[in-house]
Write a sequence for this structure.
């Protein structure tokens, strides 16, 4: 068949369905727990895709949802060549699998319960990927450096450690932790979010902003790079060890009061406290840098 519109369709068949292209404009489409195949494009401009089943839907073309309701726990497998995916701001994928031969590109902000990357490259450009569960990289690559990765689960999330994360946002109230030492450009701990440092090093080359909780354990935060940086945190948030290791002409600017349980090492450039108060329980180790106030 060609393009298949769905008005009100509940699938109770004993086998899956196959479509060339799938278009949902009104009504409700409820798949059963089988494997369904859309070899071409998926387009939803209205209606509702409501799936509480373990259905698996394979998509060979582009996926676009601009209207209606799309909330699912089903598995969507993207297994074409060069594909794009976009959904509305109130929608969410259940389990998304990127198994493309070349690339899967998000053309909007994407909310996903869990993401598996098994082949090809997953990229989201300047958009946000909001992940509520596991990120499993079984093959292929994913774009960490661009856009925003938000970790928003309701249970603790362990995120693969890497040296090239771009902007990372943490809104998980149960706690998000890297699996090892990691480098990020910007780290934003959202209100009620919890970032867990454990015994790791987190290197920040951009800005640190926290409206939530930083659980520091015995961790170290390193501010590095040749650019100006800022650090802002809510009252009561305590760092463990902090190292400022920047090029000679660059400055880390403190924009709020700050507490530290461990040591402060200023080994390069300037750490400017401005009008803020820095309370340290450990030692101040002044290397080649400057600790400035006012």
């Amino acid at each position: 068949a060609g393009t298949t519109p769905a008005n009100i369709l509940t699938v109770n068949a004993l086998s899956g369905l196959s479509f060339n292209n799938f278009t949902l404009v009104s009504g409700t489409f409820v798949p059963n727990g089988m494997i369904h195949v859309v070899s071409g494009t998926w387009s939803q401009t209205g209606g509702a895709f409501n799936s509480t089943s373990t259905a698996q839907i394979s998509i060979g073309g582009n996926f676009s949802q601009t209207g209606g309701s799309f909330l699912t726990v089903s598995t969507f497998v993207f297994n074409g060549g060069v594909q794009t995916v976009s959904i509305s701001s109130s929608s969410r994928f259940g389990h998304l699998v990127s198994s493309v031969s070349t690339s899967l590109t998000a053309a909007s902000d994407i909310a996903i319960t869990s993401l598996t990357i098994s082949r090809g490259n997953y990229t989201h450009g300047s958009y946000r990927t909001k992940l509520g569960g596991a990120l499993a990289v079984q093959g292929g690559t994913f774009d960490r450096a661009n856009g925003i990765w938000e970790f928003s689960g309701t249970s603790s999330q362990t995120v693969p450690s890497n040296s090239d994360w771009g902007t990372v946002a943490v809104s998980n109230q149960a706690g998000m932790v890297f699996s090892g030492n990691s480098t990020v450009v910007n780290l934003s701990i959202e209100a009620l979010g919890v970032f867990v440092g454990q015994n790791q090093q987190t290197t920040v080359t951009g800005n640190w902003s926290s409206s939530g909780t930083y659980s520091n354990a015995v961790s170290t935060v390193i501010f590095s790079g040749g650019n100006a940086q800022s650090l802002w945190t809510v009252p009561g948030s305590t760092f463990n060890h902090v190292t400022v290791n920047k090029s000679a002409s660059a400055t880390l600017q403190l924009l709020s009061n700050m507490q530290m349980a461990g040591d402060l090492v200023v080994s390069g450039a300037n750490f400017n406290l401005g009008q803020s108060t820095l309370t340290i329980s450990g030692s101040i180790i002044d290397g080649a840098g400057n600790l400035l106030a006012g």
In short: The CA atoms of residues 232 and 255 lie 5 Å apart.
